[in-house]
Fold this sequence. Notes:
Blueprint: H1 8-12, H2 16-36, H3 51-76, H4 81-88, H5 92-111, E1 114-116, E2 123-125, H6 129-132, H7 134-147
Antiparallel strand pairs: 1-2
Amino acid sequence: MTETTPYDADRARFTREGLARLVLCDEAVDVADSAGGLVATGNDPDCGPGGRVSQALQLVELAERALASAVVYERERGSSWAEIAQYLGTGAAEAEARFSAHLTEWDTAFTVPYRLDETGRKRLPRLPPAAYDPEDARTFLDRWALLRRIGIDDRQAVSRGLRMATPEEGTPPATS
């Protein structure tokens, strides 16, 4: 039985590399927005003891997710484990061991698009939101970058560099 998602046609316009890049962009936005929350000092009196440590820890967790997304993107664009490991300061085998679960999860999401929630009643998409609905993500990310003047006045600072699929190489349809 073939299981479809509402965004299969939109997703087919992107390569897996392009989808992985959108996910990385989306994760980077989360990191940037979280880091921004640590900049202003005006609300410090309202923050309980240890509160800023909590915010900083959340930032580290978001950065770890962005790192995992960067590894998935690099693998999708053809980077070897040795090339990735060079930037992690580890060996190729260690890098692969550290991130292989993320890659397995990414690969699985293209063949089994949904998983059940903890109640077993609700289907949840396996793909990260930016890859599940790439057109919405692309629009949001281009607007986010424009408002923060990333790429100065480039209205397509994110979408301009994405690798789109040719008709022969579109992302495979979801099946289960």
